[in-house]
Amino acid sequence: MAIQKVCGVETEYGITHLGVAEPNPITASSLLIQAYVAAVQRRVGWDFEDETPGRDARGFAREGASAPVVETHLVNAVLTNGARFYVDHAHPEYSTPECASPLDAVRWDRAGELILTRAMAAAAETLPPGQEIVVYKNNSDGKGNSYGCHENYLLDREVPFARIVAGILTHFVTRQLYTGAGKVGAEAGGETDQVTFQLSQRADFFEEEVGLETTLKRPLVNTRDEPHADPRKYRRLHVIAGDANLCEVATFLKVGVTALVLSMIEDDFLDLEGLVLAAPVRAVRQVSRDLTFAAPLDLADGGTSTALGLQWRLFEQAQKYAESEGLDSLGGSGPEVLAGWERALETLESDPSLLAGTADWATKRSLVEAYRERHGLSWRHPRLAQLDLQYHDLRPGRSLFARLPSERLLSEEEVRAAVTEPPRTTRAYFRGRCLERWASSVAAANWDSMVFDLGGDPLQRVPMLEPLRGTAEVVDSLFEECRTPAELLARLGSEG
Amino acid sequence: MAERELKRRPEREREQEPAEVEEAPQGGEKAEKLKAELDELLDEIDEVLEDNAEEFVRNYVQKGGQ
Q: Strand A7-12 to strand A304-305: parallel, antiparallel, or no bridges (unpaired)?
C-alpha cells in the first residue's frame, strides 16, 4: 500500500524593482519579505520586547525575527501557516507547508500568491515615491534565464530510486499537456526561431534525464536526497520539471496526477510496456512545441506514440489501480484527481483550446491569439511577449490572468484563511500553532524540528521526523492544556 | 492496449453519429462564450498593459534561478 503522498510546492517568483537605476533582485526580495513580516507583526500585535532578531544562526528565523534594517541576505521567515517565505538565490521563494492532499497543496499555493500580493503592498508603503516592487508567478524571463516551481512528494524509502526514475520520466515529459503555463517563443533548446508559442515555460531548459543539479544542466528527474523526515523510512522526491501555475485546476492535476503515478510506482503497479521514451530530453521539447498534439514520440521499444497517447496509457493503469488498490494515498482528493485527469485528456482529444480556464497554456494562448489577430501582429512583436509576462503579474490591477475566466476549486475565504492557518492534517499544524502562540519562545523552525528558547540553557529541540504527526487531531488538546511553551515541552518530553 | 480501445471507442463512435450534434454545440458554446469574454477584455486591455512594451520586456531580466 502506497504511503500517503504528503506533498508541497515551492515557487521562486520573478521580481522587478521599478524606479531604480540598477535594481538588485536580492535586495528587492529581502525588502519584499521583510516588509511583509513587519506588516504581519503589526497586525497581530506581537510583543517585540523580548525578541532577539539576531538569533538566526541555524538559517531559519521565526516570523517575529525581522530586524528593522534591511538585511540583504538570509532573509528567512517561517509563517504561522507553516510555510517558509525566504530569499533563494535572487528570488523571493514561498514554500507551502506540508500538505496531506493535492487540494490542500492548491490551497496553500494560492495562499502563497496572496502573501506575495500583500508583500508587494507592504513594500510599497516602505519604498520612496516612484519605486515599486513587482512579482511574477512564472518561470522564465524570456532571455534564457529560468527559475523554478518545485514539487515535493513523500515516498517510502524502500522504493528503489531507479524504479522511480524509470516510472516517472514519461509522465514528466507528457504532463505539460495540461500543466504547462505556456510561453510565447523559445529561448533555448535549438530552433528557437521556429517557435511561436509553446506549452511549457520550462521545457527549453532541461538538458539531462537524471541529476543533482538544479541551476545548470537541469535534469528531468532531480536526485536531491534530503527527506526532511526520518531518512530510514522516507524519501522526498524533489521535482524540478514543472511550471508555476495560476489555474487552480492545473496545480491540482500537476500535484494530484503526479502523486497518483508515484503511488503506482511505489506499489510496483505501473507496467512500463509501451511507456518508455527513447529520448526523454528531446521529447520534452517536442511535446512543448507541438501545438498539433499529434507529433509521434520515439519509444524505447522501437514504436512511437503521441504524448496524449502516453497520458491515456498512464490514466488507464491509474483507473485499474484505483479499482484494485484504492486512492487513499491522495488524502481524499483521489476521485477528483482521476476525474479531472480524464476530463483534461478528453478535452485534449476533442479541442485542446477548450482547456482555457483550466490549463495556463491554453488560457494564455487564447488571449495572445485574440490580441494578435485583432492588431495583426507578428509573433515577434514585443506586445505579445508583454502579454505573456503580464499574464503572470500578481498585482491585482495588472494581472491578465485575473481578468480571464478560470475554473476555481476553492473559495476566496478558504484561500484567505490559509494565509495564516496551517493545514490541520500534517506536522505543519504543530509548527504553525507554535509560531502563532509562542513566537517569542521559538528560536528556530525547520521542516523537521522546532527549537525553543525558554530562557535557560541549552535550547530545546523538538524533532518532527514524522510528517503526519503533529496534526490538529493529536495536538489541539495538548495546546489547550498547556499555557506556556515550558508546559508543552514538559508534556512532549513525558510522552516521548 | 485493449482497455484503452474499449474506453475510447464509444467516444469515437459517438463522434460519427448524428446524435453527437447534441454535444457539439456545447463545445461550440463554450468557445463562443470564451471569445465574447476575450473581446471584452481586449477592449479594455490597453489600460492595463504597461505603456512601453519593448522597454518593459527588455528590462525584465531574472538571473540566479534554480
A: unpaired
Residue A42 has a pLDDT of 65
Q: Is residue A350 within 8 Å of A356, Cβ to Cβ? A: no
Contact: A14, B60; criterion CB under 8 Å: yes
Is A214 part of the contact surface with chain B (CB cutoff 8 Å)? yes
pLDDT digits (tens, 9 = 90+) for A433-444: 999 999 989 998
* A485 Rama class: left (phi>0) / alpha (psi -120 to 50) / beta: alpha
**Sequence-distant contacts of A52-59: CB under 8 A, at least 24 apart:** A52/A453, A55/A443, A55/A444, A55/A453, A56/A444, A58/A443, A58/A444, A58/A446, A58/A451, A59/A444
Residue-wise pLDDT for A320-335, tens only, equals 999 999 999 999 999 9
Name the residue among A385, A398, A403 with its Cβ closest to that of B57: A385
Q: Is the pLDDT of residue B5 over 70?
A: no
- Compare all CA atoms of chain A with the CA of B49 and give the residue at the minimum distance: A398
Amino acid at A231: P
CB A176 within 8 A of CB A203: yes
pLDDT at A496 over 60: no
Pairing of strands A304-305, A297-298: antiparallel
Q: pTM (2 decimals)? A: 0.91
| Record: contact B38-A370, CB cut-off 8 A | yes
Name which of A397, A303, A333 is nearest A106 in CA terms: A333
CA atoms of B44 and A467, how far apart (whole Å): 48
Q: Which helix (H) or strand (E) holds A159?
A: none
Identify the sign of the CA torsion A436, A439, A443, A444.
positive
Nearest CA-CA partner of A73 in A55, A57, A86: A86
Backbone dihedral angles phi then psi of residue A12, each to the nearest 5 degrees: -90, 120
What percent helix, strand, coil does chain A show, rounded to 5?
45, 15, 40
ipTM of the complex: 0.87
As given in the structure block, the three cell numbers for residue A72 are 540583504
A206: three-class secondary structure by DSSP: strand
Which position has the grid cell 508583500?
A: A119
State the SS3 of A347-385. HHHHCHHHHECCEHHHHHHHHHHHHHHHHCCCCCCHHHH
Structural domains in chain A? Answer: 7-416 (3.30.590), 427-495 (no CATH)
Q: Which of the two residues, A249 and B53, has the higher pLDDT score?
A: A249
DSSP per residue over A23-90, as a string? --HHHHHHHHHHHHHHHHHHHHT---TT--TT--TTS-EEGGG--SSPPSS--EEE-TTS-EEEEETT
Q: Are A273 and A294 in contact (CB under 8 A)?
A: no
Catalytic residue among A47, A50, A56, A88: A88
Return the sign of the alpha-carbon dihedral for residues B9, B10, B12, B16: positive
